[in-house]
Amino acid sequence: MQTASSLRGSVDSPVTGIAGTLRRTGLISRVARGSAWIALGYLTSQALRLGANLILTRLLFPEAFGLMALVTVFIVGLSMFSDIGIGPSISQSKRGDDPDFLNTAWTIQVIRGFGLWLVSCALAWPAAQFYAEPLLAILLPLAGLAMVVSGFDTTRIETAHRHLLLGRVTGLDLISQIIGIVAMIALAIAFQSVFALVAGNLVGVAARLILMHHHLPGAPNRFRWERAAARELLHFGKWIFASTAFGFCSSQGDKAILGKFLTLSMLGIYNIGFFLASFPIQLGYALTGRILIPIYRESPVGASRDDRTRVRKMRFVLTGTLLGLVLFMAFLGPFLVALLYDARYAPAGAIVAAIACIQIPQIIGMSYDQAALAAGDSKGFCLLSCARAVIQLSLLLAGTMTYGLVGAMVGMGIAALAVHPLIIWLAVRHRVWDMQHDLVFAVMGGSLGGLALWLNLDAILALR
Hints:
Elements: H1 4-7, H2 18-24, H3 27-59, H4 62-81, H5 86-92, H6 99-130, H7 136-150, H8 156-162, H9 167-191, H10 195-215, H11 227-261, H12 264-277, H13 279-298, H14 305-340, H15 348-358, H16 360-365, H17 370-374, H18 378-429, H19 435-455, H20 457-461
């Protein structure tokens, strides 16, 4: 883990702080160390989530998880529909270590947090009416308070991410998660209500805020509005804003649509299955989102043969590891569900197998799009996000209306295949596409994924 001196001055003195550290530390070593911290943090976080999930499924009822899934759709949706890319802006900007730039970014972030909470209050009653769930009118404003709290998160977090110095951030994240989980379980024992999930999450977010402010070195953020910094942030962020709005449709659209067609109990079971199946791809997004922008920024693929070779090796290792994990879930997910959960959650096993196979095309293409952001091409990234959202939601809705849950998953699978040529288009545009990589893993993933689907076909068809 990094010492305080390795990060000290990251905000108020870049030359003696992080920037000085960078001159003494090579890109490859920082990438390796950063990847290790991200992977360790993510796997530990998922293990904690799984442990909490197993405890909470025995304290609460499936309908509680279905209701929480709907709350999550709205809260994540608000966050993504208003995201202007503060993190990517800091990561790719030449002024990413400038205190005026960072404080302006923090000021925008705080204002955004309060605005999101007000919108969550405004949406509470209409959401309760649309889904015929009166509790949403209370749960949404309470859950929305987490966005106010997280709006005050220090930009020192993003500075550490920018320079791949992630040890301390990872440790503090995990501590805050543990605090939130303990609060969630204690409240569930005391009240046996879905409110335990919402309130426990709020405790975890508040714990993260306090820990990051007190234990990350550097000057605290202050309210600041520099016009040049704000203009750069908003110019870069206008396409990120649209991209994350479309990203919400891709990542949460299934729950938003299925929430209207499935019972709360079945939606809760689907959410558990999706959680188990998606941990490899979420690990991949955590790695690519934090690691690849610095790699593409500091070691552009088109610059030299060594750069191309370095990035290619990294891509093969990343895709191979993630594909192995997702195939593990495709084959053994049903067994794990039967082992870990009681009989009420048995259908989640088939959902794990199906969702894991659906995600194989996404894993193959996930290392390409960050090259666009590293090059400042947030518009190209936005166009890809838009196309992905339109294709996925259209096929998901058509499949759900025709064949229920099974049709929804078929629609998502076809959409994943249809989007890949567009990913290739963006990769070619930024000279990062590797045809051999795609062919190797398409053959491997397609054959083994097809076998996993065949072995679980009866259980998957029974979900309809």
